[in-house]
Automatic annotation (TrEMBL):
It comes from Candidatus Enterococcus ferrettii. This is HTH marR-type domain-containing protein. InterPro entries: HTH_MarR-typ, MarR/SlyA-like, WH-like_DNA-bd_sf, WH_DNA-bd_sf. Pfam families: MarR_2. The lineage of its organism: Bacteria, Bacillati, Bacillota, Bacilli, Lactobacillales. Residues 1-132 form the HTH marR-type domain.
């Protein structure tokens, strides 16, 4: 079977499973992606999130507004660009981050449980190699 199709299909199923589990905790996969990116960088602008997540700015702005309404993130003025704001996680945002990380790890662990530890390490190594090469392009 075609590797591209397999990767796409597995990715789609993992995303679906993760979304179903996250929704039970009040966030979607897209909101989780934004939370993760803000956490990794400590603060971020909508434009930066849009670029890193490969989403258009209006979509990210909508996600940010919903996360703000849930009080999972907050804005502060951007000292280097008055037209934008810096986004930071609130205490509630940090708490949901930890909860969602556990959910994400569990979903992946369940999905990969048919593989031995060595097979999982090999898979991770190969995916990391491909991912690093794609980032160079």
């Amino acid at each position: 079977m075609d590797s591209g199709y397999l990767l796409m299909n597995i990715s789609k199923q993992l995303k679906y499973d993760l979304n179903q589990a996250l929704i039970k905790n009040g966030v979607t996969v897209q909101q989780w992606a934004v939370i993760q990116q803000i956490h990794q960088r400590k603060e971020s602008t909508v434009a930066e999130l849009s670029f890193r997540l490969g989403m258009d700015k209006p979509t990210v702005s909508g996600i940010v507004k919903r996360l703000e309404n849930k009080q999972l993130l907050k804005k502060r003025p951007n000292p280097s660009d008055q037209r934008s704001s810096l986004l930071l996680l609130t205490e509630s945002g940090e708490a949901i981050l930890k909860k969602c990380q556990k959910i994400s790890e569990q979903i992946l662990e369940n999905s990969l449980s048919i593989l031995s530890y060595e097979e999982q390490q090999t898979l991770n190594s190969l995916l990391t190699k491909v991912n690093q090469e794609k980032r160079k392009l």
